[in-house]
């Protein structure tokens, strides 16, 4: 008597669980790697911002204004000033890598500013390292503008007899009200970590499930796996990964997010629906890719190699519109691309799942696409298994 589909799914689920326990490579990839990577990479960016970036300073002005500039810059948690007596020493320290740059205050800076002449200070930064250079520039530039405006405000008030309001209008005719939203401190860690956790979830699932399918071909077990039907084979094996990685997603959002102090501004229910759809889309995609390999080791090597390229072309680390056109086409074939748009919108911006219907439809269409090509690919492999036709007839 033929088994009911539900019984076949359960038996295939238990079969997959048994194989994972016996296969050390799968066990390492599926049960250890997700947690290890999440905590290891998360710990690197746990502080989210840089502190005490060393900046050499040379003060040839020796004025009250120059001392005020240095005091305010040094009070910033991001910058640590190191004083030098001449400019050559400061440059040498930057060239040797002991400082990330130098700040030079030339003679006559305060006098020029008080007489309403342009006063120039020099900020030279080693831009070979992106984060320290951008952090130094942002902090020092803001402090210089603020103090310069304050000195001129006092001049207009004392010398010209202007009221505070009129003097302020002369000092700053255009006032920029800068308000960074969602990532209020513009920290690199707060930007990177949510996407990094999602990438860890995706890649460990893809690597593990691709390995499992390649192992079926390597050990000639396709008949055993697909014997109860191709659809049952796909979703019976996939059920194990759906439950396992749904658990990981729940763990990341409730444990790692709290440990790393990451905000979750949107609806937890809508995020759960999105993660479920994402995992369900990855399951046939992984089985299709895994079915292209006859060697489990080669499959592992290729999928491990794909991790960084996938991260780069999905539009998270670099704007999608700035990618070459051919990479945009390739990126649109990856479930990660629409998922990241929806995921960051919910987690970081507090958006609804339904606020971006095009990305949601994109992900659903990719689920349909990979389900079809996975079914067709496994059907072709099944037709080559000895006795498969008679088995289907029976």
From TrEMBL:
TM segment ranges: 27-46, 188-214, 234-257, 269-289, 295-318, 325-347, 359-378
Keywords: Cell membrane, Membrane, Transmembrane, Transmembrane helix
A GO cellular component entry from the record: plasma membrane
Main location group: membrane
Location in or out of the cell: Cell membrane
GO molecular function: ABC-type transporter activity
ABC-2 type transporter transmembrane domain: residues covered: 25-373
Membrane topology: Multi-pass membrane protein
Gene3D superfamilies linked: abc type-2 transporter like domain
Domain of life: Bacteria
InterPro entries: ABC-2_transporter_component, ABC2_TM
Protein name: ABC-2 type transport system permease protein
């Amino acid at each position: 008597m033929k088994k009911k589909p539900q019984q076949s799914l359960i038996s295939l689920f238990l079969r997959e669980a048994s194989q994972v326990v016996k296969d050390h490579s799968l066990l390492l990839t599926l049960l250890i790697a997700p947690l290890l990577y999440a905590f290891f990479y998360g710990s690197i960016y746990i502080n989210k911002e840089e502190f005490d970036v060393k900046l050499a300073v040379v003060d040839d002005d020796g004025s009250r204004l120059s001392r005020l500039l240095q005091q305010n810059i040094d009070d910033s948690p991001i910058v640590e000033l190191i004083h030098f007596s001449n400019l050559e020493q400061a440059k040498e320290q930057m060239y040797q890598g002991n400082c990330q740059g130098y700040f030079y205050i030339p003679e006559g800076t305060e006098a020029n500013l008080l007489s309403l002449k342009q006063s120039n200070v020099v900020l030279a930064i080693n831009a070979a390292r992106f984060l320290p250079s951008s952090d130094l520039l942002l902090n020092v530039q803001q402090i210089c503008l603020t103090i310069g405006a304050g000195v001129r405000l006092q001049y207009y008030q004392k010398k010209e007899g202007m009221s505070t309001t009129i003097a302020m209008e002369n000092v700053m005719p255009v006032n920029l009200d800068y308000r960074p939203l969602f990532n209020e401190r513009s920290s690199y860690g707060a930007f990177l970590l949510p996407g990094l956790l999602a990438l860890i979830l995706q890649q460990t699932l893809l690597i593990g499930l691709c390995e499992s399918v390649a192992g079926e071909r390597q050990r000639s077990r396709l008949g055993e796996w697909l014997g109860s039907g191709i659809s049952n084979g796909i979703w019976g094996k996939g059920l194990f990964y759906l439950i396992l990685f749904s658990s990981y997603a729940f763990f990341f959002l409730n444990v790692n997010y709290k440990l790393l102090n990451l905000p979750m501004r949107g609806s937890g229910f809508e995020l759960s629906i999105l993660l479920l759809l994402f995992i369900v889309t990855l399951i046939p995609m992984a089985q299709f890719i895994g079915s292209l390999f006859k060697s489990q080791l080669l499959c592992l090597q290729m999928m491990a190699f794909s991790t960084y390229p996938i991260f780069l072309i999905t539009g998270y680390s670099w704007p999608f519109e700035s990618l070459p056109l051919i990479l945009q086409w390739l990126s649109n074939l990856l479930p990660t691309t629409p998922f990241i748009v929806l995921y960051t919108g919910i987690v970081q911006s507090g958006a609804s799942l339904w606020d971006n219907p095009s990305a949601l439809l994109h992900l659903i269409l990719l689920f349909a696409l990979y389900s079809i090509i996975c079914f067709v690919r496994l059907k072709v492999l099944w037709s080559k298994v000895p006795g498969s036709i008679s088995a289907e007839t029976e």
